[in-house]
Amino acid sequence: MRFAPLDISNGASMAQPVCAIITGAPSKKPMAHWCAPLVFSKWRANSAMAHRRKVEKDTMNKQRLAAALDLIGVLAERFPACFAVNPSYRRPLKIGIHHDIAAQLGDTISPRVISDALRIYTSSSRYLKALVAGAERIDLNGMSAGTVTAEHAQRRDKHKAKQKQLAVAPAKPAEPPKPVAAAPRRIGLADLKTAAQARRVALP
Question: What global pTM score does this model have?
């Protein structure tokens, strides 16, 4: 099937819809009328995709948090001399202990879950309090595995200062309420009568 060359010499505009040009019927509706549904449909699809991605991200974050907390419980049960669920009994861990955990648990736990669990474990206030220079570090068996250096203790102080700053950050002051304009008084029948009487008195 062949189409004749497009002839716009008879007044047809390139802004007209393609269907109107092909059929020869002039379009009485502007181009925006034909494009608006397409634009809205694309916007709605993009919005739905963005919402779906946000829901998936939030769900993934909740799942990662739950997996990390579960792993802390498993580590406290399997290595009680090293890990503790109660933050009050947590002691500085050996540097590189994540490698030992991965070697003990094998492929049952992903490195990301181990990293998340250790980040939560070592971010507690009681653990940071125990992380002082010269304090003993322990391995999975609770044996001595080095000491806390002054550099690591300094990092601890910076981390605690940041946590304290976030905790005492002043709340954003509430904006004062905007004044509400008084509604204009509604003119009643008595006002109209008073105005008519005033006009009659003013007449010569």
Answer: 0.53
